[in-house]
Design brief:
Length: 70
C-alpha cells in the first residue's frame, strides 16, 4: 500500500483451470474491461495436456482505502 501518499493498492488472486487457448481468450477479455488494473503474475502450469492450472494476480490503485466499497 502507498498510504503515506494517499494511494491504496488492492490486489486479487484468481485461480482456475483450462487449456492454453481458453486462458488466452480469458486474458484478452480481462484486458478489454473498462477498469484499470496492473498485472503482477500469471502462473501457467500444464497438469495434464491440454488442461492447465492458472493463477492470475492483479491489483488496482485507488484513493479509497476500502476494497470494492467495503
Amino acid at each position: 500500500e502507498f498510504t503515506d501518499i494517499g494511494v491504496y493498492q488492492h490486489g486479487i488472486e484468481m485461480e482456475f483451470s483450462g487449456s492454453y487457448l481458453e486462458t488466452l481468450g480469458y486474458l484478452k477479455q480481462l484486458k478489454q474491461l473498462p477498469w484499470n488494473f496492473y498485472w503482477d503474475d500469471v502462473l501457467f502450469d500444464v497438469v495434464s495436456y491440454p488442461k492447465s492450472s492458472i493463477i492470475i494476480r492483479v491489483h488496482t490503485l485507488s484513493l479509497k482505502e476500502g476494497w470494492l466499497g467495503v
